[in-house]
Specification:
3 helices, 72% helix, copper, Metal_Tscrpt_repr, Methane Monooxygenase Hydroxylase, Chain G, domain 1, Metal_Tscrpt_repr_sf, Metal-sensitive transcriptional regulator
Length: 108
Amino acid sequence: MTTAAGQRHAPEHPQAPGYAGHKADHLARLHKIEGQIRGISRMVTPDRYCIDVLTQISAANRALQEVALGLLDDHVRGCVTNAARTDPTQAEEKFAELTASLRRALRV
C-alpha cells in the first residue's frame, strides 16, 4: 500500500508490529535523540566550535542507526519469522521487503 506522499506501508494487520515488545525502549531512545538534536541547535546559535557540533551530529546519527538496527532486528524476529512460519506468499513478500530495506540502508 502506498500513501499520497509516496511512502510504502504494509496493509493493516491484526498482529502487533514486530517491535511491540520493545516499543517503550525504542521510544525512549528516540526521545533522547530528539533532545540531542535540540542540543545541537542550541550549540549553533552561540557559534560553538565546528568540530564540537560535528561530533554531536555524529553521535545523533549513530544513535538513530542503533534504533534502526533494533527495529530491523525486531522486524526479522517478529514479522518475517511469523510470515515464514504461516504463509509462504506473505513470507516471500516480507523477504523482498527486507531486501529492499537493506538496499536503502546500505545504499546499493
